[in-house]
Write a structure and sequence with these properties.
Order of helices and strands of chain A: EEEEHEEEHHEEEHHEEEEHEHEEEHE
CATH superfamily of the largest domain in chain A: Aminotransferase class 4, branched-chain amino acid transferase, N-terminal domain
CATH class of the largest domain in chain A: Alpha Beta
Distance between the termini of chain A: 23 Å
Low-confidence stretches of chain A: none
Radius of gyration of chain A: 21 Å
CATH topology of the largest domain in chain A: D-amino Acid Aminotransferase, Chain A, domain 1
Helix content of chain A: 10-25%
Oligomer: homodimer
Strand content of chain A: 25-35%
């Protein structure tokens, strides 16, 4: 059985780090010196290596390109105020990754490869972690099928990789959101809960059309009635109504089980704010807005942590929010940041030391 | 403006053709000596080349692998009885390809690149076309995004390619089909009508579970009620009831607009058999079966042309069909084959000469 101790490291000859403009770090654009790569064949993960970041040599008949057997995760690593490096809840991402793999007929990735591999890789790249507020090292584990065959069946071979990208603050302006009633992201029985590549490519059209109309993203609704609220862009969504938080529930399998979503629910509970995970439709939302009970709307995800929403546009109607008054969203965001940076105790054991 | 005449050809040094076992040609497993490759950047297709089949050098942050901006087509080329080479309805595939591209926020591929490029490539590879019954040269045009960036937005660069694969008869045994009521392939407002990679990866789970139960494929139902019939595996589906053909209609956007589907409708009309394109649900089908009016069920697609179905299994109930008696399906299949091989006149101008 291979294990974390067998991960072979090939050293770079020269680091790219001096080329990095630390004041200009767009999301997921620059990558560190190393990457982790492992191949799956005959039922096991082999050739596990940390090596210089480099292009891959792939057959043009690669099934991942033709049939989309491809999944990923997004995680962040930080230096805390004492200069120690921590990863935020990576085991949750491993669980979700393997659920995505199961849905897409791909093999499980074991903990030694996903978690210990990630820790070894980050350990080697600590100097790439930005030490500035709202900056982090973005960690991208992903897996794709590598058979070269045009027959449609689960691939027999796969590649698992981890890339690291030093990343600046997510565009932090409060968002304008278009409530989507035409395009669909996911339906019950589909792959909406899995973090597979196709969900993202399929969502681009709606986002692009919303952007042409002046919005930042869409609020997805259900496939059947276009009434039941799902996700906001690529984030989970929370509504604060009558001092209670409501977020769409997961049981239909159309929504990603966000790690930040779960963390936000926990922090809200810690603050004594009750959270309802349940179906919520646009009519209830409009009604709450019109009666002055809809206080805050925000998205949650790894990239932005918490993204404030200043406008929802639904069926000709603008719902506006004063983000300065979004006390709860801002409070939760600060708590999550302070836990990450070691300014608050990690009472829920969310941080994994590198 | 680049054009077909600008396609640069790099010659191979030695053909692989003598390694090919002509008696063993599984679908999409072996590829010819050459491939076509073109890159899209700054709004135009550049570096259009026919070159030796070879691996691609791709960045591990390739957006196609992470976010599934990837589409394809499947087409067949044949030698007719006079030894002339024809492609079957490639312009229809070009139209569908560009509809897929539009849905996935990808650029259009122009006719000179798709059709003329394909013709030049096939011209160079004529010796790879199998001259045996039920054999063909399978043509695989595909396009994927090539930006190396983890931000989710339409890529600015793309690669378009055509691969050729000499292919033997599709597994021709009549199929046993499980009517799927749990998993969903597509929903209105989604990407079901587009031939994008993610649709195929997302379908593997249902097919795999059906195969474990002894079936060859699933008959997909709608996402909401799991009643309305969609496609059979990766093919369109036809039902013959009371000497009338019924096939699910396209307007909800959940079904692929098959080129073979369209050809079959035309041949059925030529035979004086009326064809209804309309929603059809499983209850109507069961009722027709129980009253002895459901005569034939078959799938249509490029790989199999017509795939006979000997069993539908729905909710504990077996519906069995004697495929020897499936007169219409077999007649349509023969007509399509005879048109392809030049034994019947090409009255609908389906054949494009290489």
């Amino acid at each position: 059985m291979p294990a974390a101790k067998d991960i072979k490291i090939t050293k770079i000859t020269k680091s790219k780090i001096n080329d990095l403009d630390w004041n200009n770090l767009p999301f997921g654009k620059y990558f560190t010196d190393y990457m982790l790569e492992a191949d799956y064949a005959n039922g096991e993960w082999v050739s596990v290596a940390i090596k210089p970041y480099q292009p891959l040599t792939l057959d043009p008949a690669l099934t991942a390109l033709h049939y989309g057997q491809s999944i990923f995760e997004g995680i962040k690593a930080y230096n805390n105020v004492d200069g120690e490096t921590y990863i935020f809840r990576p085991h949750e991402n491993l669980i979700r990754f393997n659920k995505s793999a199961d849905r897409m007929c791909m093999p499980e990735v074991p903990e030694w490869l996903f978690i210990d591999g990630m820790r070894q890789l980050i350990e080697l790249e600590k100097q790439w972690i930005p030490n500035k507020e709202n900056h982090a090292l973005y960690v991208r584990p992903f897996m794709f099928s590598t058979d070269a065959l045009l027959g449609v069946r689960p691939s027999l071979t796969y590649k698992f990789m981890i890339l690291l990208s030093p990343t600046g603050p997510y565009f932090a302006a409060p968002m304008k959101i278009f409530v989507e009633e035409k395009y669909t992201r996911a339906a019950p029985g589909g792959v909406g809960f899995s973090k597979n590549a196709g969900n993202y490519g399929g969502s681009l059209r709606a986002a692009t059309e919303a952007q042409k109309m002046g919005y930042d993203q869409v609020l997805w609704t259900d496939a059947h009635e276009h009434k039941w609220l799902q996700e906001v862009g690529m984030m989970n969504v929370f509504f604060l109504i009558d001092n209670k938080a409501i977020t769409p529930s997961l049981e239909e399998g159309t929504i990603l089980k966000g790690v930040t979503r779960d963390s936000v629910i926990t922090v809200l509970n810690d603050l004594g704010i009750s959270v309802e995970e349940r179906p919520i439709n646009i009519d209830e939302l409009v009604q709450a807005y019109e009666s002055g009970r809809l206080q805050e709307v925000f998205g949650t995800g790894t990239a932005a942590t918490i993204a404030l929403i200043q406008e929802l546009f639904y069926n000709g109607k603008q719902m506006l929010f004063d983000v300065q008054q979004c006390e709860i969203a801002n409070k939760v965001k600060n708590i999550l940041n302070e836990v990450r940076y070691g300014l608050l105790p990690d009472t829920h054991n969310w941080l994994v030391k590198v």
